[in-house]
Write a structure and sequence with these properties.
The chain has about 180 residues and is mainly alpha-helical. It has six helices and no strands. This is CDP-diacylglycerol--glycerol-3-phosphate 3-phosphatidyltransferase.
């Protein structure tokens, strides 16, 4: 257990705290949930940076890091969909969560074929993650009233959903020769 792995575990442990803070009946609860989500998002960047810089990458970290990211984002999206209950948030949330399921399954299947590198994380995914995280920080910090900030959060989430679809199409196109191959007898 090294520092990058501890940061990843911390990110998972922060998820129930985000949920608890989000539902507290206080005026500051949204801001507190957003602050903890922000800390978790920063640990996502920091654990990867430290693992590379200190050469402390491990199989456990390689497994848990993307799981922690997906859990954190999915939980935040579910909280927000329930709270905002509108198409502007629900549709991008469904696209983002659905894409994560499709791409995770695709990566697992490609790994079984020994072609995992063809569906590795791209720079497009980094832009998607940045837009998504900023959108979630903004939306978690604000009550579900249409303000400039909430509108900006919706816009960034829609951008993240568009980038999500674009990256999924790229992954599917990279995997298409394997998906379209006829089985040899």
């Amino acid at each position: 257990m090294n520092i990058p792995n501890l940061l990843t575990v911390l990110r998972v442990l922060l998820i129930p705290i985000i949920i608890l803070l989000f539902y507290l009946p206080f005026a500051w609860s949204y801001l507190a949930a957003s602050a903890v989500f922000t800390i978790a998002a920063v640990t996502d960047w920091l654990d990867g940076y430290l693992a590379r810089r200190l050469e402390q990458g491990t199989p456990f970290g390689a497994f848990l890091d993307p799981v922690a990211d997906k859990l954190m984002v999915a939980v935040a999206l579910v909280l927000l969909v329930e709270e905002h209950a509108n198409l502007w948030l629900t549709l991008p949330a469904a696209i983002i969560i659905g894409r994560e399921i499709v791409v995770s399954a695709l990566r697992e299947w490609m790994a079984e074929l020994g072609a995992r590198a063809q569906v590795a994380v791209s720079n497009l995914g980094k832009w998607k993650t940045a837009a998504q995280m900023v959108a979630l920080v903004i939306l978690l910090a604000n009550p579900p009233m249409l303000t400039i900030w909430v509108g900006l959060g919706y816009a960034l989430l829609i951008v993240a959903a568009a980038l999500t679809l674009w990256s999924m199409v790229n992954y599917l196109m990279a995997a298409w020769p394997h998906l379209n191959a006829t089985e040899k007898k």
